[in-house]
Amino acid sequence: MQISKELLPKKTEQIYDAIVIGGGAGGLSAGIYLKRYMLSTLIIDKGKARSFWMQELHNYLGLPSNTTGRSLLKTGKEHYLSLDGDFLNGFVEEVIDEGETFAIRVKFGRQNSVYPVFRCKYLIAASGIIDYLPQLEDMRNVYEFAGHNLHVCLICDGYEMTDQVVGVFVGSNEVIPVAYSVGWFTPYVKVFTNGLFEVSPENRQKLKEHGYPLFESPVQKFLGDNHQMDGVELEDGSVVELQSGVVSMGSKYHANYLENFDLEHQGGNLVTDKMARTSHPRIFAIGDLKVGLNQVIIAAADGALAATQIWREIRREKGAQRWAEGIKS
Amino acid sequence: MQISKELLPKKTEQIYDAIVIGGGAGGLSAGIYLKRYMLSTLIIDKGKARSFWMQELHNYLGLPSNTTGRSLLKTGKEHYLSLDGDFLNGFVEEVIDEGETFAIRVKFGRQNSVYPVFRCKYLIAASGIIDYLPQLEDMRNVYEFAGHNLHVCLICDGYEMTDQVVGVFVGSNEVIPVAYSVGWFTPYVKVFTNGLFEVSPENRQKLKEHGYPLFESPVQKFLGDNHQMDGVELEDGSVVELQSGVVSMGSKYHANYLENFDLEHQGGNLVTDKMARTSHPRIFAIGDLKVGLNQVIIAAADGALAATQIWREIRREKGAQRWAEGIKS
Questions:
Q1: What does the pLDDT look like over A280-321, one tens digit per residue?
Q2: Within the 111-170 window of chain B, which residues sit less than 8 Å (CB to CB) from chain A?
Q3: B293 with A300: Cβ contact below 8 A
Q4: C-alpha to C-alpha distance for A327 and A165, rounded to whole angstroms
Q5: CB B188 within 8 A of CB B328
Q6: What is the pLDDT of residues A224-240, one digit of tens each?
Q7: Which of A80, A159, A238, B31 has its CA 20 to 30 A from that of B3?
Q8: B328 at A interface, C-beta within 8 A
Q9: What is the CA A132 to chain-centroid distance, rounded?
Q10: CATH code for the part of the protein at A5-130+251-325
């Protein structure tokens, strides 16, 4: 059930089998599996998962190509709640390893916040990432187009850009090669540094070889209307025409609550085994937080893996019920 | 498009980027991703994937809990065809590695069969498994209940058996421990050997400790009506009441076409890396054929992994398009 303030005293008394931090695709899938394994489960969600912003899921098997991320999340949350899973809207501030259990301190309520502490045996980190967007004075101008034809994921939306004139907005020299991946879908690639860094001579040379124009003046404003971006105005006053764009400026990882743990990372991502377990035996990481493809279908599958492994361990520890324990004996 | 006999001469001339053997959840997901990566793709499907038999998908994120496997496959195939993917109804008889390409010989047409040979650079084995069912004289009696309340997957349907009297139909001593996994969901477990093997003293003792009755006479007939099994009649004449059942008698692997390849296996399953690649650099295996959980959501995610890796390799080999190659220069 959706946990209200009134229920906090009761819910902070129990020890959950698993707490899932993040109510996006990965977290909801994990929650559905956990509940179907008869495990007590709490999902703590701060809201606005990355998929919440997706206008169209183009490649999720079983859903029509124009399904919104929001609708997937809604169906998933209803599914989870129908299995009697607990769901809390809150922000996880800290996780403490108590040995057998984790203590999870949550900020609940925007005003007059309270800080309940929940406990669980296993933790699933499913809080994902969010993409950095170009920082303009008027961020509404960015949000007008982001997730529409100003994309953040080439795997998801490269197909949509076929043969279009595409602006690639990069945050550092390291990600300039994204332009050549865009170049798989279209030869018309324009690269924007947003004035954030000095382009290396090697990158400059290679872009030139490909005939991809480079724009180093910061973006002043995205142009277009009705969520369709059709160009940018730069600070130097020039206007560059585009038909769509991809932002590749890195991501913010929503996992500050794991700072106390010395978990194995690769870049910013958590390293996990085949069952989505991190280097801590009772902490799993699923979806965009872990090494791998940032795709909704992958996050959903990760949820199944983590939940199944947790079930196996709890089941083996508790053992099977005996007939005599039942009431039908 | 759906490949008809008339199209065979044309389609056997081209070299596909990838051919997917199997049009189940994994194969369709791979096909959708491949097409969205602009790769030429053929799915060859013999029909009746394992998921085709599923009456209710209970735990696939984004779909209501009563979605049939058949409906998922239909939506997925429509999605794939809408992306201009090629789809052939046929049975793969043989795969030959020609070095740069694979030659795939297919039996096409039930009557007056022809045997076209298709070629591709990469192969995705997605042809899955099918569960062995108890072999009765009248198999219609088995099919009446299989996939309804005579289940084959505990992970999928354990929840449905909660506190029910469940018959566990096993094919060997090795799988008797499935009874104790069922014992997570209900204490009322009855084990049937179907007369196929001699139960080991250890298994006998442990079942006794759990109070799980053992029936060693072969099943004569499943009882019940309207797809709801409510017991079995054994050859010794006894009738045993049940509320549902799980069959765990092993699986047939649909991958004879890989016999010529010395691929790494674990048990009957193909070993794959994190991108679903087998020990052969151009053969991927996804879904139930590979080591891992046999779940629809996992197969769908596997499809995304294999397709993405194939795209990366082809993309890196071909390189990015240059602006001058386009027509908008």
A1: 999 999 999 999 999 999 999 999 999 999 999 999 999 999
A2: 155, 158-159, 162-163, 165
A3: no
A4: 69
A5: no
A6: 999 999 999 999 999 99
A7: A159
A8: yes
A9: 12
A10: 3.50.50.60
pLDDT of residue A329: 55
Q: Is A325 on the interface with B (CB under 8 A)?
A: yes
Residue B14 in this model has a pLDDT that exceeds 80:
yes
Q: Indicate yes or no: CB of A305 within 8 angstroms of CB of B328.
A: no
The number of beta carbons lying within 10 Å of the beta carbon of residue B105 is: 17
| Predicted pLDDT of residue B329 | 55
What is the pLDDT confidence band of residue B138, given thresholds at 50, 70 and 90? very high
Contact B28 A61 (CB under 8 A): yes
DSSP B263-287: --EETTEEP--TTSB-SSTTEEE-G
Helix (H) or strand (E) holding A28: helix A25-36
Q: Which chain A residue has its CA at the smallest distance from B276's CA? A: A274
From the list A188, A300, A321, the residue facing B186 with the nearest CB is A321
Task: Please identify among residues 48-107 of chain B the ones whose CB lies closer than 8 Å to any CB of chain A.
Answer: 58-65, 67, 72, 75-76, 79, 82
For B185, residues 6+ apart whose C-beta sits below 8 A from its C-beta are A38, B158, B159, B161, B162, B163, B166
A328 near B CB under 8 A: yes
Best mutation target, A54, A61, A294, to test chain B (most B CBs within 10 A): A61
Do B106 and B88 touch, CB atoms closer than 8 A?
yes
Q: With an 8 Å Cβ cutoff, are A292 and B304 in contact?
A: no
Residues near B82 by beta carbon (within 8 Å), at least 6 away in sequence: A65
- Binning chain B into helix, strand and coil, the percentages to the nearest 5 are 30, 30, 40
Give the homologous superfamily in CATH for domain B133-248: FAD/NAD(P)-binding domain (3.50.50.60)
- Where along chain A do the CATH 3.50.50.60 domains lie? 5-130+251-325, 133-248
Nearest residue to B258 (alpha-carbon basis) of B31, B92, B15, B89: B92
Q: If DSSP codes are grouped into helix, strand and coil, which group holds residue B258?
A: helix
Which residue does chain A place closest to B299, by CA atoms? A301
Determine the Cα–Cα distance for residues A85 and A101; give it in Å rounded to an integer.
19
Which residue of B lies nearest to A287 if distances are taken between CA atoms?
B301
Q: Taking all residues of chain A, what is their mean pLDDT, rounded to a whole number?
A: 96
Residue indicated by tokens 């949820």 = A303
Distances (CA, A) of A43 to A90, B113, B146: 10, 55, 34
pTM of the prediction? 0.96
Contact predicate A142/A134, CB 8 Å: yes
Q: How many A-B residue pairs are in contact by the CB < 8 A criterion? A: 195
DSSP state of B205: H
Among partner residues B165, B213, B297, which is closest to A304 by beta-carbon distance? B297
Is the CB of residue B308 less than 8 Å away from at least one CB of chain A?
yes
B32 neighbors A296 (Cβ within 8 angstroms):
no
